[in-house]
Amino acid sequence: MEFEGQVLREAGLALIGVAVFIAFLIAGSTMGAAEGEAAGAFVMIGGIVAFIVVMGALGLLFLDSD
Questions:
Q1: How many angstroms separate the first and last alpha carbons of the chain?
Q2: I want to staple 32 with a disulfide (CB 3.0 to 4.6 A). Which of 4, 13, 14, 40 is the partner?
Q3: Which long-range contacts (CB under 8 A, 24 or more apart) does 9-16 make?
Q4: Are 58 and 13 in contact (CB under 8 A)?
Q5: Are 20 and 57 in contact (CB under 8 A)?
Q6: Quick one: which H or E segment has residue 60?
Q7: pLDDT by residue (tens digit) across 12-60?
Q8: 45, 21 in Cβ contact below 8 A?
C-alpha cells in the first residue's frame, strides 16, 4: 500500500495537532483541574481553544492545497 507524500504530510500535521491537545489535557490534569484548581482549568480550556484554532487552520491549509 503506497501513500502520496501529500497524504502523509496531512496525516502528520493532524497527528501533531492531536498530540498538542493531549499534552494540554495532561498538563491541566496534573495542575489540579479535577480538584477545581483555577490554573489547571485554564490550561485545559486553553488547550481546547488551541486545538480548535490549530485544526481549523490545518483544515483551511488542506482545503487550499487541492
A1: 22
A2: 40
A3: 10/58, 10/62, 13/58, 13/61, 14/55, 14/58
A4: yes
A5: no
A6: helix 38-64
A7: 888 988 998 899 888 888 887 777 788 888 888 888 998 999 889 888 8
A8: no
C-alpha cell at 56: 481549523
Tell me what pLDDT residue 66 has: 55
> Cell for 54?
490549530
58, 17 contact by CB (below 8 A): yes
Q: Which amino acid appears at position 44 of this protein?
A: M
Q: Per the structure block, which three cell numbers stand in for 27?
A: 498538563
Is the CB of residue 27 less than 8 Å from the CB of residue 1?
Answer: no
